[in-house]
Write a structure and sequence with these properties.
The strands form three sheets. The protein has a six-stranded parallel beta sheet. The protein has a four-stranded antiparallel beta sheet with strand order 3-4-5-6. It has eleven helices and twelve strands. The model has no long low-confidence stretch (mean pLDDT about 95). It is globular, with a radius of gyration of 21 Å. By secondary structure, the chain is α/β, with parallel strands linked by helices. The protein has two domains: about 290 residues, TIM Barrel; about 50 residues, no CATH class. The protein starts with a helix and ends in a 5-residue tail after the last helix.
Length: about 350
């Protein structure tokens, strides 16, 4: 049974011989059921980081900023401090400084199928793996960058009409991306949209339902109509909208802090509605401790609470262990349980 079949069985809660794997940090490459892909870069666009001083002619405060900046296709300016080893950074100037720019603002054009050719080729040569491309986010993740996070949270109250217009524009863009990945042969789409702090949603649940839930329904339905499953990553405490996310059609939930909302609470809902957890051991309360017993028990709990012969759980590696100061030994302890105890005996 190849990897793609196993992941499909895990997601569909059919009889499966083991849990799913995405253990990318392993040098042996044997425990990864996925083939990822993305949208190809534009040929003449500069995506690279530059010294912040290079942009001081436009943003004078960057003259004293000891770090790096880059632009993205949306027109956002990203920055990161010099000591940051990651490639992420944060938006420091949104593309749309004022809503008066909305009428002339253009989102990136993802209708060009050439930008999905690399993904199509990767999916044709995937060695039987589940084909999971990443999309740029859902509307909140994209809009909060265009307007910059602090401004956008105020916009949700003060500029609702403009937010709704931009939201519709982003939804249409994301549907085109979904169409092109479906044509490229994807099995699903994966998006990241962080909605939680450590103890609550970033906005009220009622506002989330009013502004964003309709977009989630439209985008999930669009993907499902094209035969694609929907994977969602979110950080933080989002328990207040878990039922909504289940209702709109999220198939697989990728959490890096599976203990944050109570594993029993989440497992009960996911088992009832046949939803899948896609996670490592908890990256805040478990993996950084270096406690072998705690790490391995957390891995066992993930398997036992979320998975069975009927599917329900995919283990994974976190993407940046050095930044969260997790040793390779701790990762190996986690892998040991996932590999040895995530196999179901018949």
């Amino acid at each position: 049974m190849d990897s793609r079949t196993i992941i499909k069985k895990v997601i569909d809660f059919e009889d499966t011989p083991r849990i799913g794997y995405e253990l990318r940090s392993r040098k042996d490459g044997l425990y990864n059921d996925f083939r990822g892909a993305g949208i190809s870069n534009l040929e003449n666009f500069d995506y690279s980081w530059h010294k912040a001083k290079d942009m001081a002619y436009k943003f004078p405060y960057l003259e004293t900023f000891d770090g790096f900046v880059r632009h993205d296709e949306y027109g956002n300016l990203w920055g990161k401090v010099a000591s940051d080893p990651s490639m992420q950074g944060e938006v420091i100037e949104g593309a749309m400084e004022d809503w008066s720019q909305l009428k002339n603002y253009k989102l990136p054009d993802f209708t060009n199928t050439k930008r999905f050719k690399e993904a199509e080729n990767a999916f044709k040569n995937n060695n039987g793996r589940y084909k999971l491309p990443g999309i740029p986010g859902f509307p909140f993740a994209i809009m909060r960058n265009i307007r910059k996070m602090d401004h956008f949270l105020m916009d949700l109250i003060l500029e609702r009409e403009n937010v709704d217009i931009l939201n519709d524009m982003v939804v249409n863009m994301l549907m085109k991306i979904t169409d092109n990945f479906a044509l490229a042969g994807a099995d699903a789409i994966f998006f990241c949209e962080d909605w939680g702090t450590q103890d609550r949603l970033l906005i009220s649940p009622s506002l989330w339902r009013e502004v964003f839930k309709p977009s989630y329904i439209k985008l999930c339905n669009h993907a499902h109509d094209r035969g694609l499953k929907v994977f969602m990553h979110s950080c933080g405490y989002i328990y207040e909208i878990i039922d909504d996310l289940i209702e709109v059609g999220i198939d697989v939930f990728q959490f890096d802090q599976p203990t944050l909302m109570g594993m029993d609470n989440i497992a009960e809902k996911f088992t009832k509605h046949k939803k899948v957890l896609f996670s490592s051991c908890d990256i805040q309360k478990v993996l950084p401790t270096g406690d072998k017993e705690l790490i391995q028990q957390n891995a066992r709990d993930l398997i036992s609470k979320f998975s069975s012969h009927g599917g329900g759980y995919i283990c994974r590696d976190y993407g940046d262990y050095p930044t969260i100061q997790v040793s390779q030994q701790s990762v190996d302890w986690m892998h040991e349980i996932f590999i040895n105890e995530g196999v179901f005996k018949k």
